[in-house]
Amino acid sequence: xxxxxxxxxxxxxxxxxxxxxxxxxxxxxxxxxxxxxxxxxxxxxxxxxxxxxxxxxxxxxxxxxxxxxxxxxxxxxxxxxxxxxxxxxxxxxxxxxxxxxxxxxxxxxxxxxxxxxxxxxxxxxxxxxxxxxxxxxxxx
Amino acid sequence: xxxxxxxxxxxxxxxxxxxxxxxxxxxxxxxxxxxxxxxxxxxxxxxxxxxxxxxxxxxxxxxxxxxxxxxxxxxxxxxxxxxxxxxxxxxxxxxxxxxxxxxxxxxxxxxxxxxxxxxxxxxxxxxxxxxxxxxxxxxx
DNA sequence: TATTGTTATACTCTATAACTATA
DNA sequence: TATAGTTATAGAGTATAACAATA
Lengths: 140, 140
What we know:
2 copies of one chain form a homodimer.
Chain A: H1 13-35, H2 40-46, E1 53-54, H3 55-62, H4 66-78, E2 82-87, E3 90-98, H5 100-113, H6 115-121, H7 125-139
Antiparallel strand pairs in A: 1-3, 2-3
Chain A binds a DNA duplex through helix 2, helix 4 and strand 3.
């Protein structure tokens, strides 16, 4: 006979707070991206192009397969927001960079996002420093 | 003539901490789900079934379209992890609930996840309370 | 007529495997 | 032979629109 598995684990108050924070952050990110007609992944890649960046590096940063970056880069290129340029020092490599339009759109995304800034603005400077400290310690 | 758009906004230290927290949380969630052969969305739905729940309610909770829930529920059903039952009081409605196997798998997911608990365990009880308080204030 | 849920469809993200070109 | 990137393909999440059954 099989015993019932029982209820799932009960989260503590801090864990719930962390969950709510992450949940709201993710939703705000997605929503801000949609507001400028980007997907979250596209906004994420676009945001990493302050400097031109190789495909392999982007894949490593985002923790996904390189073939994935190829597709996202291709779409950003079609949208006129990014451009792939040959690497003079390595014929295999290509660097992805933002176009001027891409930077404009990304800045519109940032203004639409605002989640982190708004959250932080509800805290005093001392509280902000303390929050930062606690998060860093928790992340180890 | 068009002026350059200029650099994107520079995030503050707290904002960076928030970003890192969310990023690590999301990756750990995804990875834990994969470790029990679930997608993040499937784990998310499964985790909300401590009580049977209607499709519409699930869609509202997850902030997505109801047709989306239909698909995820169908897959969870095929996997034997959840079940859709008719609602006796409303012939249109169906309630999704975890099977015993679904609860077992979800508990394995929780053990694999552990991110929030591990993070929280690096803090003293006083620090945990303070973190919780600051997050709640920041989320308003 | 409004609501719950489903189906059909299309787009995107994602990974794997096979491939091209270069190192 | 190894590496950077691409292509082909397939599974899954997502939304919209049209639909069935019920309220």
